[in-house]
## 1
Amino acid sequence: MKKFYQLENLDCANCAAKLETAIKAIEGIENASVNFMAQRLMVETSADIEKILAEIEKVIAKIEPDCELVR
């Protein structure tokens, strides 16, 4: 399943690249991409999306504390 989410307060392209790499490393994620210009996250997974989103939010808080995932 492919889902798209808006990211608020993503400050720089470097942080977006770090987020993308870290999110791709989460167990259950088949693919992910972060578009800095559009402030969007695309996630592909066949796992439980709620558990995946909780892990993604932890990664975001660690790398870019001011950034928020809009569900």
## 2
Amino acid sequence: MSTTSIPNVTVTTQANVYFDGKCVSHGITFADGTKKSVGVVLPATLTFNTGAPEIMECVAGSCEYQLAGTDAWVKSGAGEQFSVPGNSSFQIRVSEPYHYICHFG
């Protein structure tokens, strides 16, 4: 099941805009200090680098992703998630808007 709302958070109102507007996100912080981001990737093929491990949760749309060091493209849709190791990268291929929550750490 996809996450539809996140109660009791602080939202950073200035958007993070990447790849000439193909990815837009907002940071959110929970009362315990946990940070996540919520956003959308528009149709494109993009490469993201990670510092900390990340879990990408799809809340609407779908994508295909390829983790660094692999040849396989894997599909992920609403209600699904995939994990990316820290200090790594992944490619994401989107043909329709992909709405996500990125869980850090």
## 3
Amino acid sequence: MRATTAHYFLAKQLEEAGLGFGDIEAINLTPSDGYTAFASGKLDAWAIYGYNGQLAIARQGARLLKTGVGYLSGNFPIYANPRAVDEPLRHAAVSDLLLRIQRAYAFANKNFPVYAEAQVAETHLPLQDILDQFARRSDDFSLAGVTPDVPETHQKVADTFLKLGVLDQRTEVGKFWDTSFNDAIVAGAASLARI
């Protein structure tokens, strides 16, 4: 899909091979439309993420050719309203939410079969698909603070999208990142390490 992580890592993988989008017939599809096209044999290859890739492997016998490891930072941002960041009580509430997410990730990493069963109850997806997707993950789930490399990696994505014509002008992404939750996240990680 255009302007997604799949678009970005496909661009970087093509570039690495000395190719560009002009060298392939790229089709912009939603994940569900992409799955339908892949399943019907209308796509030779599919740059996708998440459960749809698992579906292609489990149901269509797709072979995994390359992953986003080395191309994507693995950072999936959590967004907060600036008013919530600036107001002390709301900031504390957001900190509490982040620590709960951090604990949930730690639980899922250590107890994934239990976590997977809960996912099955909510999503009705096959348990084995969820377990297989977890087994192929590039790293454990984690919640970390914003380090200097985080905005740098996201700047690379924005710059690539500018080059591809997805963005009209250069955007400085560093201003969108907030480090005011870092201390709470570090303390939460230290507390989890003692368990």
